[in-house]
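User: I'm preparing a small set of examples for a lab meeting where we compare how different chains pack in three dimensions. I only have the primary sequence for this one, and I'd like the structure in token form so I can line it up with the others. Please keep the answer compact; I'll paste it straight into my notes.
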Amino acid sequence: MKSIKVSILNRQYPLVVKHEDEQIMIDIATFVDKRLRDFKKDLVNQTETTILVLTCLSIAEELFTLKNKLASEPEKMDQINNAVKSLISEIKAYNTPQ
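Assistant: Understood. Below is the structure token output for the 98-residue chain.
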């Protein structure tokens, strides 16, 4: 396990993650931070709590839409899984010292 800190809306959050999950967690935090900043910029008269909730709902809506779409098209899900596995193998091979 590894301790990292991510920054969201200029606040530091300490996290403990598996070594292999470090970069994805940093990417997720960066994504969340950007979405919050976008909502904050567009909703200047709203409270921070409202902005947080609306951002969470927006991200959850995207997740549910994607899950529903993939559930109705299992062959595409298999294709995506295979493509991701292949990409991971390529990345590992590329990053392995020769």
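A couple of notes for your slides: The chain has one domain: 2-95. The first helix runs from residue 22 to 42.

User: Perfect, thanks.
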